[in-house]
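FORM 7B - TANDEM STRUCTURE REPORT

SECTION 1: FIRST PROTEIN
SEQUENCE AND TOKENS:
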Amino acid sequence: MIVAALPAFNEEKTIAKVIIGAFRQVDKVLVVDDGSTDATAEIAEKLGAVVVKHERNFGKGEALRSMFNWARMNHPRILVTLDADGQHLPEDIPKVLKPVIQGRTDICIGSRFVDDASSEMPRYRKWGARVIGGVTRSVSSLPIRDTESGFRAYSEKALSVLTPSEMGMGAEAGLLLQASEKCLAVEEVPISVAYKGLRGPRQNPVYHALDVLGTVFKYISIRHPLLFYGVPGLIALAIGLELGWHAFTIYSLYKAFPTNLGIVAVGATLAGLLLLSIGIMLFTIVTVIRQRS
């Protein structure tokens, strides 16, 4: 069984077209109604989709979590996710499914940035997506250009080992970071994406970017605490000691202690020691947890 899953929040104007198109490509359609106040759920049910309802709007991450939970209970062969607002074209579903069906990959991403992709993406969003993608790619070591695309196909194996852990827009980046950690194969294929005529993003683009980057940095801080905290700690400690040496040199020469320089030196030294301590403690905790799991 191949299932198309749509996260939806107040998409009554577009969801019917997406569901009808998806039914032509897959066996079943799942709609996660994330607290809609319009007729989104009713339309989906009348068209034959399975509907999971949230009491209120929790965000993209919680919608993905509901999709994965449903998949674990119903065991589809492949789960393909796409947006309900019409920007993802259901007729591209076979492109995204093909590498997973052939067994070449565990996750296939419909990309807006690979060769032959067609996208009406506004320039500011394209620039932001590339910056976020560069950060996520450098951390995950996955050669994926479009790390923010929600048009994805997940194999049964991927569905069994991945768990959306973020509430907000960083959920999809978080899944890629998990996929890298669990050594899953990830591939991307070109798709066409429509933006003209659609309403703009509900979330402020700056907040969206910070949300995703926060997910990436949180991942680094948990998985690599010595790197995340230890390196800045060593730098701050070195700066503090260097400034402290200069402060005492000035005092020995002129018998006048440079108060401002001394305060900065002490502050940098304490900050460095604090960061190093946090890094070591978290590294110890993470190591113990990994050994017991």
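SECTION 2: SECOND PROTEIN
SEQUENCE AND TOKENS:
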Amino acid sequence: MPWSRCSRNSGTDMGRVFAALVRHGDYHQLPDTPSAHQPFPLNPRGEEQARAAAEILRGMLRRHGWQPVLEIDSSMLLRAWQTADIIADQLAGVAGSELHVDSFEALAERGLGSAANLSMTQIRDVIHQDPRFPDLPSNWKADSHYRLPLQGAESLLEAGKRVAAHLRRRVMELGPAGDADRLKIFVGHGAALRHAAYHLGVLDQGQIAKLSMYHGQPVVLEFLPGGLWRHVDGDWKLRTPAVEELD
């Protein structure tokens, strides 16, 4: 399958660059609320998932001989920053220096604009009561192309494009590092990261709806010459059709 692990490319003497995409840990989420811009912290399970992510990354670094980039990029939302901070703390000393976290708006999940942090029922009522708009389609939240007709809202594909642009820029900013293979860690949100993988050419459109991401389990992409990307380690999560994830 296209989303299974790929073998290492040993046909170059130049150091390679890898990006670890990490979905934040579980958090204190409002019930039945689809906005991923909620400002709440990790719950105890999420903290454990963040520590588990660090152990998985430690194993990848050891197994592949990668050097970690000292700066971890995270979403500005608290749960993502906390996940990244725990990873940085747990990986202390692996690179010979302390890792640190920088937060970026570009790594946020899909925004719902003026509907941010309203419940599913409230959002349906807002759209229903506005004479300018038709009622919401039943699958509006999972539809990659759909954007709420509200100020500041974006579609999942638009969010993924924003995240993909950040990944490209930050990886390209690393510059040359001799023959050392490096791993840069990005901590963000499942849907935006998954749609970013589509924009990077790692997933096709049919796979987006079938896959998700596990909390705290990295998916690693390699940045190839010519700006191409490929999946090299970590597993995507197969989505359960009967369960709609809110974040």
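SECTION 3: OBSERVATIONS ON SECOND PROTEIN
The domain at 17-238 is CATH 3.40.50.1240 (Rossmann fold).
Confidence is low (pLDDT under 50) at residues 1-12.

SECTION 4: SIGNATURE
Preparer initials: ____
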